TrEMBL record:
InterPro entries found in the cross-reference section: EFG_III/V, G_HFLX_dom, GTP-bd, GTP-bd_M, GTPase_HflX, GTPase_HflX_N, GTPase_HflX_N_sf, P-loop_NTPase
Name of the protein described by the UniProt record: GTPase HflX
Compartments where located: Cytoplasm
Annotated organism of origin: Azotobacter vinelandii (strain DJ / ATCC BAA-1303)
PANTHER family according to UniProt: GTP-BINDING PROTEIN 6-RELATED, GTP-BINDING PROTEIN HFLX
Principal location: cytoplasm
Record's keyword terms, sorted: Coiled coil, Cytoplasm, GTP-binding, Magnesium, Metal-binding, Nucleotide-binding
Domain Hflx-type G: residue ranges: 199-366
Coiled coil regions, renumbered to chain: 165-192
Length: 433
């Protein structure tokens, strides 16, 4: 560590502030879920009403004394605040409580550190942690802020605090360079998909809305899914075949949360860019959550931060199995365009409707008709069959294939242009869509 702080532990007291600005107020139930997700053994939950936060402790001195006694009584090793603390407030509270103090940002960072699995994910978490820690170095080495005086100790030199700051800056710079390389690699992969004209669909939504469960149900994958906050950190991409559309790439992304720390949004920008470069966003919503409207607002706010709020969005109301009297359905606007789909990722109800809605939104320029392929284009014929685009086949007098097909026009153009030909050379009949 960069400075001596009380050791952390699992026995935690949670402190939730009420009376704050409504925009800054946090959800106490979500706070407890976050603490449990981090592995804390919650021994007490304390609500504090304070309209004017104290600059020194955030809370009043009387409440500081109460919490100090509670820490001793419960033998707590950690006090977690459901609020953002300044570095000085964190240090003052640690001195008063004689135990480790963590704020909301530090708690979320700890969960991210536990869940990151890939090299990129670990780098992103480390970057966010170091940037958070850099603001906490100010009071860490106060006993070494000045060079010691005396014979043999005078003159220029570097204090321990300056050394740590320099090492921290160097490490942050190294991580940023590595993440920039990852970012360019992702951009190369995206360019390749765009050249192949394969649509990218990203799952976004509030944490624990069921994105990974839905991802596994659609793609038959084994992505880790659990009933806890931030179960998914590392993005996963899988190919998905839809009958009426062909191939697309489905991306599972990190969940959002109310007041997601800006350090995390910045650190995970390379990951979140998968969402901002999508052809369609599937906004997964927990239909059983009473606060779902507030969660929807938070997701849209984060999408705005990463420049993805202008993209086409299909709302997916998940966890239908927890609701009574609701059946899987597609809800449409006045023009018949899908707006939201009600599904249960757990038992699979409504997934066919979801596939249909995705195909409708992405395949709005479908070619449905008959193509006449001469005998010499057997490879092209096989490609249409491999895509599942052929509905029936007959033959003409010259032995050519008459294929009744249904596929996106961009896919038709791509396949035919590979042979150095034009699509209109083969169209025998076209049904307008």
């Amino acid at each position: 560590m960069f400075f001596e702080r009380p050791g952390g532990g699992e026995r935690a007291i949670l402190v939730h502030l009420e009376g704050q600005d409504p925009e800054a107020r946090e959800d106490p139930q979500e706070f407890q879920e976050l603490a449990r997700s981090a592995g804390a053994d919650v021994v007490a939950f304390v609500g504090v009403t304070r309209h004017q936060p104290s600059a020194k402790y955030l809370i009043g001195t009387g409440k500081v004394g109460e919490l100090h006694d509670l820490v001793r009584t419960e033998q707590a090793e950690l006090v977690i605040f459901n609020h953002v603390l300044t570095p000085s407030q964190e240090r003052n509270l640690e001195r008063a409580f004689e135990c480790r103090v963590l704020d909301r940002t530090g708690l979320i960072l700890d969960i991210f550190a536990q869940r990151a699995r890939t090299h990129e994910g670990k780098l992103q978490v480390e970057l966010a942690q170091l940037e958070h820690m850099s603001t906490r170095l100010v009071r860490g080495w106060t006993h070494l802020e000045r060079q010691k005086g005396g014979i043999g100790l005078r003159g220029p030199g570097e204090t321990q605090l300056e050394t740590d700051r320099r090492l921290l800056r160097m490490r942050i710079r190294q991580i940023r360079q590595r993440l920039e390389k990852v970012r360019s690699q992702r951009e190369q992969a995206r360019r390749g998909r765009r050249r192949a004209e394969i649509p990218l669909v990203s799952l976004v939504g509030y944490t624990n809305a069921g994105k990974s469960t839905l991802f596994n149900a659609l793609t038959a994958s084994g992505v880790y899914a659990a009933n806890q906050l931030f179960a998914t950190l590392d993005p996963t991409l899988r190919r998905l075949e839809l009958d009426d559309l062909g191939a697309l790439v489905l991306a599972d992304t990190v969940g959002f949360i109310r007041h997601l720390p800006h350090k995390l949004v910045e650190a995970f920008r390379a990951t979140l860019e998968e969402s901002s470069n999508s052809d369609l966003l599937l906004h997964v919503i927990d239909a059983h959550e009473p606060e779902r409207m507030a969660q929807i607002e938070q997701v849209m706010a984060v999408l705005g931060e990463i420049g993805a709020d202008h993209l086409p969005i299909l709302e997916v109301y998940n966890k239908l199995d927890l609701l009574e009297g609701m059946e899987p359905q597609i809800q449409r606007d006045v023009d018949g365009k899908p707006l939201r789909v009600w599904v249960s990722a757990r038992d699979g109800r409504g997934l066919e409707l979801l596939r249909q809605a995705i195909a409708e939104l992405l395949g709005n320029d479908l070619f449905v008709g008959t193509l006449r392929l001469p005998q010499g284009l057997g490879r092209l014929r096989a490609q249409f069959f491999s895509l599942g685009a052929v509905r029936s086949e007959t033959h003409d007098e010259e032995g050519g294939s008459l294929l009744a097909v249904r596929l996106p026009r961009i896919e038709l153009n791509r396949l035919v242009s590979r042979e150095g030909l034009r699509p209109d050379e083969f169209i025998a009949q076209h049904t307008l869509q």
